[in-house]
Design brief:
Strand content: over 45%
Order of helices and strands: HEEEHHEEEEEEEE
Helix content: 25-40%
Largest sheet: 4 strands, antiparallel
Shape: elongated
Structural class: alpha+beta
Number of strands: 11
Length: 203
């Protein structure tokens, strides 16, 4: 009986070691895959393209960082996020995009002559341009000083797509993510997307 108990204990200990090693190998393999994926994302430039409606768009792969890594490498973004009163432990993903709007202007200029006691004291040349995406209003005085306001409007559409790994490489889909990316489209036809990043916070 004692031998059976001893053998059982030994087998249990061996099984525990094997299970622990398996879990460790699985964790290291997952970390390796994430490292490779992050390396690919960082090595590739953001891909820009145009939609069928000639709107400017960009696509970028997912960068996966632990919270400690995000705090180290994206400290500026984290400080901004803190102003939103968001707790670090609740942070799941951060997407940033940079865009530039260049508009060729064409509008009408009107002369407004200012009289006082039948004497011209100033001439204002004013410009008023209004579009769906921007407004420009301003005037120049006789000293050729222009003052005005320019208002630009933009709307970004961010779509996330996920590809899952398949069992044996080609059979049914599994729950494991193979590739995750986002596409960013500016609805303003004058806007060019200059940069995009997509970071998720992992355990």
């Amino acid at each position: 009986m004692k031998k059976i108990l001893i053998y059982t204990a030994i087998i249990g200990a061996i099984a525990a070691v094997i299970w622990g090693q398996h879990a460790r190998i699985k964790s290291l393999t997952a970390d390796r895959d994430i490292y490779r994926s992050n390396n690919d994302v960082l090595m590739k430039d953001v891909k820009t393209y145009q939609t069928k409606d000639s709107l400017n768009a960009a696509t970028v792969g997912e960068l996966q960082l632990k919270l400690s890594e995000f705090e180290k490498y994206r400290a500026g973004d984290l400080e901004l996020i803190k102003t939103l009163q968001t707790k670090n432990r609740d942070l799941q993903a951060v997407t940033t995009a940079q865009s530039q709007t260049i508009i060729k202007l064409r509008g009408s200029v009107r002369d407004s002559i200012v009289y006082r006691d039948n004497v011209i004291i100033d001439t204002l040349q004013c410009l008023d341009i209004t579009d769906k995406w921007f407004d420009l209003h301003g005037c120049t005085n006789k000293r050729k000083e222009f003052t005005g306001t320019f208002t630009n409007r933009d709307s970004l559409l961010i779509a996330e797509t996920v590809k899952y790994k398949r069992f044996m490489g080609f059979l049914r889909k599994t729950s494991k993510v193979k590739d995750r990316k986002i596409d960013v489209v500016s609805k303003n036809p004058n806007t060019k997307i200059m940069g995009v990043s997509f970071t998720t916070i992992r355990d």
